[in-house]
Amino acid sequence: MHRFLSSCPKITWPLLAILLACALPAGAVDFNVSSADELQAALNAAAANASDNEIVLESGTYAGDFFFRPLSDTRLIIRGAAENIARPVISDGHIGFIVVGLSVDIEMTDLIFEGADFDFPRDSLQSLTLTSVDMIDTGIPHLKVDGAVRLERVKMPLSVNIWGNKGYDETHPNASLTILNSTISLYYQDPVEYGAGIVDIGGALSITDSQILLAGKFGVVGTQHFPFSFYAGVIFLEGNSLQVKNPTLFELSPEEVKLAETLQMFGSRYAPFQRFEVTNNKLLGSTKLRIYHPDLLATGNTCDQGTLALDPEGREGSSGASVISGNKNCRLEISAEHMIVESNESMCVTPESDQHPVDDPVDGSYCVDLAMYGTAKVRNNTFSELEISGTGDLTVENNIIWSAEAEASVMLDSFPDWAVLSNNIINGYTGYWNTVSDNLIVDPEFFDVANGDFHVTMGSPAINAGLNTAVTDPEATDLDGNPRILNDTVDIGAYERSTTALHPADSNGDGSISLDEFNAYNEAWRENVTWPAAPSQIPVDFVTRAGYLLQKGGSYHNIGVGKPATWVPADEHAVDE
Questions:
Q1: Which of 450, 448, 395 lies closest to 417 in space, CA to CA?
Q2: What is the pLDDT of residues 376-431, one digit of tens each?
Q3: Which of 272-286, 338-352, 481-495: highest mean pLDDT?
Q4: How many C-beta atoms lie closer than 10 Å to residue 223's C-beta?
Q5: Which H or E element spans position 543?
Q6: Closest residue by Cα to residue 286 from 349, 370, 348
Q7: Cα–Cα distance between 234 and 174 in angstroms, integer?
Q8: For residue 222, what pLDDT band results from cuts at 50, 70 and 90?
Q9: Across residues 456-467, what is the average pLDDT?
Q10: What proportion of the chain, given as a percentage, has pLDDT over 90?
Q11: Cβ(424)–Cβ(410) below 8 Å
């Protein structure tokens, strides 16, 4: 790599004017820099030629104001040198990409920005890629992009407007936002100029294995307070943690505070219907994730006190059913034309509580609130309470819906075309049902309510008491990932009682934890090494359970409840034996 093309005479940085006068041939131009002056000179040279440019920074601190003003369409790469021990730091200044009426692609890799403000082009940025970039105590970059934005291994604040359309009359289906393995703090900017917290993406939104924090000033127009909102043709969320963190709010009522804690995602106003996928995410605190789209797959998500909500926003034309499956500890607010709700656990009010959900401080609603206007199948869930309204065909079967302190745990507040309540464990119901059959009003015998383990004990009336006809997929699994049908008959509730799983530290599968096995498992946890047996990312309580079993002699058995409490020493029995 060299400072300038070899076809030009050898030029030192102070002789920039000579460089600009040199006729540069077409093709990529590489610059290698080691000082702030050299960096700005390279930016100036890159802006003046008609080539793609790559600027490579050696380790060190680059302080000052830097600007890039290209004269033609271009692609600019700024990255740290591959041989660097430490990433270069760009600090204490302003970073400006000033582009008017051009098409520009920008890539930045292996850099740290500290105490610097950003000014990205808002009309001509075709694509932006940031990889292994940290922004510390910086201004909030505001992005307005017609093409693709990709953020990978990035820690940064971000203004919310990444547009995939010019105004509201021209779609850009190639506009997309991809976030991978990153920590992003999302902020509202001036709602009058920027649209009050709306991210409009003509193509796809994909956020994977990242931490998303709603962390900034919430936009206000008059007295209207806006939650954070995405519009996209396709939405894919997987393996993320989503949280409202220390928002700077105005004088808000309690209802407005709840609104400000909401992350909303809408189907694009331009794109055709495609399924939104929201899988294996964590909603921290009281964060609400609301999806305005009639065709949703939401599975494997967990919550603290958060809410997973689906609302089709009145859009018609969806041919599929929204599937809400395998979610744990999330409040569910579902309004959809067609829905399948199965193998979820949502226990907002425990059997030991005297607090009715209407008085619940989180949002004043029932733990699970379903509004239907087509078909709804609710099966093999474990809920504390269920409220249903709307029209169409409704089937509720094989569920545990139990809240001992409430007079009724199932409330039907409307008159569907057909409603079936069959083969559930409940403590009462209200409303008009066409068919009510084989329901049990009996304690389901949860294992450990105080610690949030709603597996059932071996004497539970839920075991082998379900309807196999409700299990339409032969490959279906329960909320633990076990086969949905064991011992020929499905259990009632979200969990199938299984006593076969071995502790993942038991590498040889002999039903005993040896010292070598514990040491290997413990070392993998300490080093954050992926483990071959699930869960691949080792939880600390699995390690302490393995140590406890080793301390008790090593031999253990499985009592069929929640992990890791399900593995007990061989001479210890389940609580109801």
A1: 395
A2: 999 999 999 999 998 899 999 999 999 877 778 899 998 999 999 999 999 999 99
A3: 481-495
A4: 7
A5: helix 540-551
A6: 348
A7: 11
A8: very low
A9: 92
A10: 36
A11: yes
Give the distance, in angstroms, between the CA of residue 346 and the centroid of all CA atoms in the same chain. 19
Distance CA(209)–CA(154), nearest Å, equals: 12
Report the SS3 class of residue 468: helix
Give the C-alpha separation, 445 to 165, whole Å.
55
Half-sphere exposure of 422 (CA within 13 A, CB side): 14
| Dist CA 250 CA 226 (whole Å) | 12
HSE-CB of 534 using CA atoms within 13 angstroms: 5
Confidence of residue 499 (pLDDT cuts 50, 70, 90): confident
262: confidence class by pLDDT, cuts 50, 70, 90: low
Cα separations in angstroms, 149 against 106, 230, 395, 448, 504: 10, 14, 43, 46, 39
Hey, is 298 helix, strand or coil? Answer: strand
Long-range own/partner contacts, residues 270-274 (CB < 8 A, 24 or more apart) = 270/165, 270/171, 270/173, 270/202, 270/233, 271/171, 271/173, 271/202, 271/203, 271/232, 271/233, 271/234, 272/233, 273/317, 273/318, 274/233, 274/234
- Return the biggest CA–CA distance within the chain: 91
Report the C-alpha gap between 516 and 56 in whole angstroms: 47
Continuous segment of H or E residues that includes residue 208: strand 198-208
**The pTM is what?**
0.77
Beta bridge partners of 299: 279, 325
Q: How confident is the model at residue 100 (pLDDT cuts 50, 70, 90)?
A: confident
Counted residue by residue, the chain has a size of 577
What average pLDDT does the segment 94-109 reach? Answer: 83
Name 475's Cβ contacts closer than 8 Å, sequence gap at least 6: none
C-alpha torsion 468→469→471→475, nearest 10: 80
Return the pLDDT at 159. 63
* Long-range Cβ pairs for the range 275-280 (8 Å, 24+): 275/234, 275/320, 276/234, 276/235, 276/236, 277/235, 277/236, 277/237, 277/238, 278/235, 278/237, 278/238, 278/308, 279/237, 279/238, 279/239, 280/238, 280/239
Instruction: Report the DSSP beta bridge partners of residue 345.
Output: 328, 382
Are the C-beta atoms of residues 134 and 154 closer than 8 Å to each other?
yes
pLDDT bucket at 10, cuts 50 / 70 / 90 = very low
Tell me the per-residue pLDDT of 290-312, one tens digit each, with 9 for 90 and over: 777 667 788 899 888 788 887 75
Q: Determine whether 565 is exposed, middle or buried from the number of CB atoms within 10 Å of its CB (0-12, 13-18, 19+).
A: middle
Nearest partner of 203 among 290, 271, 293, 294, judged by Cα: 271
Dihedral sign for Cα atoms in the order 296, 169, 214, 285: negative
Local structure of 540: helix, strand or coil:
helix
Is residue 383 a contact partner of residue 346, using CB atoms and an 8 Å limit?
Answer: yes
